[in-house]
């Protein structure tokens, strides 16, 4: 999601399930992956508390160890190493998740995907009509290029 207004943050999300069949003696496999992350051009702490709080609540309902683990994974995944900066302010990210009953992981993945609107829409509504300068719009374009 790339809003026109530079004061409304960019957000990315995807959730996925993979399954392979046995092939040539290699056993079949399955796993879930995905995440939701936020990239504000201009940081509003209240917005970030809301966004991250939404995903902490989702994770905590399924496994309290997940939020710190998946947030760290997101922070590391979106690090721009050669620039020494992060792409955004994180969120949650996971991959190869198959360590418990698949229905339980599916329930978590579904709730996380269904929480995108709750986590993100209030931020866009709050900032979509904020006034902005040409310099702020230019900064938004720089951030999008990363």
From TrEMBL:
Enzyme class: oxidoreductase
Catalytic reaction annotation: coproporphyrinogen III + O2 + 2 H(+) = protoporphyrinogen IX + 2 CO2 + 2 H2O
Top-level taxon of origin: Eukaryota
E.C. designation(s): 1.3.3.3
Pathway membership: Porphyrin-containing compound metabolism; protoporphyrin-IX biosynthesis; protoporphyrinogen-IX from coproporphyrinogen-III (O2 route): step 1/1
GO MF annotation, one: coproporphyrinogen oxidase activity
Keywords in alphabetical order: Oxidoreductase, Porphyrin biosynthesis
UniProt cross-references to InterPro entries, sorted A to Z: Coprogen_oxidase_aer (IPR001260), Coprogen_oxidase_aer_sf (IPR036406), Coprogen_oxidase_CS (IPR018375)
One term under GO cellular component: chloroplast stroma
Example GO biological process: protoporphyrinogen IX biosynthetic process
Coiled coil (residue ranges): none
Assembly mode: Homodimer.
Family membership: Belongs to the aerobic coproporphyrinogen-III oxidase family.
PANTHER family: COPROPORPHYRINOGEN III OXIDASE, MITOCHONDRIAL (PTHR10755), OXYGEN-DEPENDENT COPROPORPHYRINOGEN-III OXIDASE, MITOCHONDRIAL (PTHR10755:SF0)
Protein name: coproporphyrinogen oxidase
């Amino acid at each position: 999601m790339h809003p026109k207004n530079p004061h409304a943050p960019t957000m990315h999300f995807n959730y996925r399930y993979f399954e392979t069949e046995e092939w040539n003696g290699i056993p079949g496999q399955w796993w879930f992956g995905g995440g939701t992350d936020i990239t504000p051009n201009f940081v509003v702490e209240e917005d970030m508390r809301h966004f991250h709080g939404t995903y902490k609540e989702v994770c905590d309902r399924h496994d309290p160890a997940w939020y710190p683990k998946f947030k760290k994974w997101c922070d590391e995944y979106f690090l721009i190493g050669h620039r020494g900066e992060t792409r955004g302010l994180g969120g949650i990210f996971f991959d190869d998740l198959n360590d418990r009953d698949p229905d339980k992981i599916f329930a978590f993945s579904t709730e996380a995907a269904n929480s995108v609107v709750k986590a993100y829409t209030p931020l866009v509504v709050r900032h979509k009509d904020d006034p902005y300068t040409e310099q702020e719009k230019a900064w938004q374009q720089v951030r999008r290029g990363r």
